[in-house]
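As a next step, the fold was encoded as tokens, giving this record:
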Amino acid sequence: MKIVDLGCGQRKYFSENKKDVVIGVDFYDDSKLVDVKHDLDKYPYPFKANEFDLVYSSHVIEHVADPFRFVDEIYRIAKPGAKVIIKAPHFSYAFAHAQHKNAVGIGYFETMGVTDKNAWTEKRTGAKFKLLKRKFTYMLGKSGKLTWPIFALLNLVLNFFANLNPFLCERIWCYWFGGFEEIYFELEVIK
């Protein structure tokens, strides 16, 4: 399987399958994990169309100048049926971050008009995906792992209830309990 990690920085996507090829893309040149140096605000990306089986991007989409072009470019380089995983900070947690250019919420891809179950929204991009999964994460803790067991338990409980009804959670809950650190999207490319 051929995988691209867009905006890998110091943490490139790790595949347990040793046969998988993982290509890290970022504009940093000082990281040993960056295989292709490229600014993700420059289009097109230096890859052929329909090249990747998995496109992974963690905490990048909120930094790009044009998220619609970013999504179109992901669509271009992904094979038909490819999986796309995008992680981003939820707007309720990171709306005031000085480097964030975009706010990401639970209906982010529906407002772009890229998922297959939203006929009501204006089509703003040529990309089309099937939304497989989306979920909130309330606390990530230090390096993604919570150090105290009580926090880990609290996190499990809060994440469970938040993901029972993400839309209600986003509209009401995040204002009562504070922001959600991360939102996770898993999409399938439809071509």
Confidence is low (pLDDT under 50) at residues 118-122. The helical segments are 67-77, 91-94, 108-112, 149-164, 166-177. The chain has five helices and seven strands.
